[in-house]
Amino acid sequence: MALVLVSLTLLTISFRSPTSGALHDLQGAGSTVLRPFQIAASRVAQPFRDAYDYFDGLATAKSENAKLRSEVEFWRSEALLNAVAARQEKAIARELHYRAGATFPNGYRAVTARVISSSASPFARTLVITAGSAEGIRNRAPVVSGDGLVGLVSNVYSQTAVVRLLTDTQSVVPAVDVQTNASGVVRQGSAGGLILDEVNKQLAVKAGNQLVTQGTIDPNYPDLYPFGIPIGRVTHAHATDTSSFLVVELQPYANLSSLQAVSVLVATKKHRK
Fold first, then answer.
1. Model-level pTM greater than 0.70?
2. Looking at residues 187-199, what average pLDDT do you find?
């Protein structure tokens, strides 16, 4: 404490005294005496200053790192949402393209809806969509995607509906081969894939041939599906000695496992022809 008082006294005198003389000599001597204590104090304080600077820098770095992580998570979420929105927009665009295309069936209007859930079991394959009786959807209405036939409405509620897919065990769709005019029914085969059943063995159905809905043949028995909706492409066709019909396997045009949106065909006429 005494050394501190001496230092303050010498500092005060130095501002008020000439630049030379006894006082300055005394001040120099005092500084010389205090110098070891100043060096010691500086050395003792340095580790504390270093520790403070380290922890202060560490806290700042953690804060900046947390901020950067938050920003990265935000932009990652934005990118994911944008990607999902882009896929949905493409799916809806395909629906609108189908609605505007030349193959869109006459006498129907399309109600486009988003797919909100799906169910796939050994016996039932269905979708739930965001449109129902409030939009005019009725039971047994055909359902399509921008690529082709998806299935049929099996249950209707006010704001939603259940769609039975082509791959459901209860689904049966009368179809025709565009190239050969061979007719049959599209259903699930014993191996789980889709087949065109009940095809005459004498008809030359080949891989690559295109299948569409057959539509109504007899006006007294109108079909549920209008004529000409694309169903799929033949992948394999062969005859066996034990089978009464040609074995025709097919791949649906619509990707039934990853649908984002579909269109329900609602009849605008009372009777389908």
1. no
2. 89
